[in-house]
Amino acid sequence: MSTRLDQRLTRLENRIEEIYALLQELVAAQQQAEAVAEPAELPEPEQAPATAPPPDETELIDPLEIQYELALNWAEAGRIQNPPDPLSEFDLSGRNLRNVDLKDAPLERANLSRTDLSGARLNKALLEEADLSRALLTRADLTRAKLNHADLTFAQMMYAKLDSASLRYAVLTRANLTGANLSSADLGGALLHRANLTRANLRGAMVHRRQLAAASTLDGATMPDGRIFDGDPEPWKQIE
After folding, report:
1. Superfamily of domain 86-240 in the CATH hierarchy
2. Which of 7, 12, 35, 220 is most deeply packed, by most CB within 10 A?
């Protein structure tokens, strides 16, 4: 029995030595392969995204700002040009045009909604079909201005000069005309619903009694016939 056991142990030892030798050969082969292998290529760095080209300067110009500047330039020198540059259909909404001289300005169909025109000179200006809703026109001079079919809804026109102005079919709904001078103004067909005409001067104005009856107040107003309003809307010069 001992002989067979010795033989098996001998064969086992030999097998272990063979396996150990094989492992050494594998380790050596792995080390040699690593030594001759080329270094792995490093990944290329991500390229930064191309920056967009700078925008064209013309793209940065606000067209509404251009119109505003043109209007101011016209106010300063436009009337000496022949013919003057047209300002019709300009969008000047919400701009500051306080005390600006726009006499004779051709502003037909312009958007002047919420524009501050307090104290501005607009006498003989062409404002037909213009949008002047909620505009500030306190003490503005609109003498002989053309405002036919203009939208003056909620416009603030306290003490504005509108003598001899043409306001045919203008919308003056809820406009504040306190102390405004409307003497000899043409209000034919104008809407005066809920307009404030306190102390307004309507002497010689062309307006129908039904139009004034729609106003919110006429307290202290001078009627077209020259008398102070006393609650009786008649008599005065009427137009149909």
Report:
1. E3 ubiquitin-protein ligase SopA (2.160.20.80)
2. 220
